[in-house]
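Appendix C reproduces, verbatim, an entry submitted by the partner laboratory led by Prof. M.T., so that reviewers can inspect both the input and the predicted structure.
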Amino acid sequence: MSVKLTTFERDGKVHPVAYIETQQVQEGVSCDIYVFTNDSSCDLGIVSVKKGYKTPKQKILFGEMTIEGYLSGTGTLTVTSPTGAQKTYSFQGITTEVIVGIGDTMQWLADSDLVFYEICYPPYQEGRFQNIE
């Protein structure tokens, strides 16, 4: 995402944010990292995935809540529970959120250039996610 946000709209409310940095996650995947300037209980990542690429498959190791939310493009989010139950969410223009729990694994796949957000409660710390593949 080239234009950096100063606000982020969610649930009909506008929240002020401050850009921190952009991280290259892997080939075809980058993440703009933000903090909410009026809420230190969580942080925000805006993840861009180029067509045909996918995010690493990640297992959530800790944290209170991880929210994955669709912004634009087309693609899927696959979430697998610790029991092996798998659910795939398809995104094609309808905004929705998925709460992913501790022990779940998740992976996004872009059918076209895809942008999604990730909100971590509490703010992201190294080791929160374990890359599975």
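The mean pLDDT is 93. Additional entries are available on request from the coordinating office.
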